[in-house]
Amino acid sequence: MATAAQDVSGVADPGGGSSSVSSSVSSAPPEALEAVAAEWMLEFACSCLCRHFAEQSGAEFWRWRDVAQALISGLSQIPPHQKKTVYLCQLLIRIAQGKSLGLKFENDQRISPLESALSFWILLEREEIKLEKLHEEIRRLIQIQIVAVHMENRYFKEAAEVLERLFTDSESDKPLRVKLATVIKTKDPYVPLLQCFSYSLLIRKIKSYIELFVKENETSFLVQEATKHVVSKGLGATALQNRPVEVNENSKSDLETKQRLVEEKENITSQWFGDIKKPIGRRRLGQKPKESRVLQNLNDMQNVGGNGVSLACSRRRQKWTLKEDLELKSGVREFGVGNWAKILVHGNFNNRTSVMLKDRWRTLSKIKQS
Hints:
Elements: H1 9-12, H2 19-27, H3 30-55, H4 58-73, H5 83-96, H6 113-127, H7 132-152, H8 156-166, H9 174-186, H10 192-196, H11 199-216, H12 221-233, H13 235-241, H14 252-272, H15 291-295, H16 322-335, H17 340-346, H18 354-369
Helix pairs in contact: 3-4, 3-5, 3-11, 4-5, 5-6, 6-7, 7-8, 7-11, 8-9, 16-17, 17-18
């Protein structure tokens, strides 16, 4: 991203000591210096905000949120080259609090944090065209979750109203609009459609966008100068000493410890962003979530069947464990036979679907009868 740093680099060079630089500093208008420094600080704050969002460093994220908001509030107008920076900061702040319907970022009290986030995502889309597919995926996921969050809070009337605001009558919007309207009528926030295109998936896709944004803006002035200072003072070695010790990959017990730490971090992530309190199933170490299958037809929603179940959410056959059978029985006792989606959400299952739960219950019932 081009910044004013390129025009006044001699003025702000921390290592400069020449009389010409000193003369330039003393003769520069204070307002101009403040404006340039504020731009550098905003870029740095956005960089920190992105990193802590990706790492789910809650306290640090909120601290840099306050810094970014203060800097943005101080802008009389947004410089063209900083539009993406400002829009991204505002987007992340709203996504991180997207489940809190009580929070209001807009004067219109009907607008939820996620609906406000959607407006900033659309502004970001207008600033770049090279990520068209990712833009479309994230926009659709935000739209789905705006409806889902209202339903999770039992605000079904509001969910129907927001659906009217979100979608136009265009043919491209029609498939998703019709599916969401059907979901709202069920008054069930745990339908498979909403579970497949979940808040967690939205967070992962935004992280993908953040990675691209940070790489594009890694040459920002303050980041470069801070890096030079850390290297020159040997501060990087201290940071390395404070890193967690690498887990021995050859030790089975260490592998289990590492997996447990990963799952704990995922649970913290879910709570930080206000996601559904669903225990996270254990995956084999090194196995990546198959997001591409879930998202491959998000744009046209043609893979969503008449019952609202996405064909992208299919799973490979795998043997049921005793622990999963106990989870299933417990879920049936709590929610009743037939409420497989709710049982799936509240139970600790290993990569299962509600259809798998139904089939397994039928098998267990036959075994019991015999």
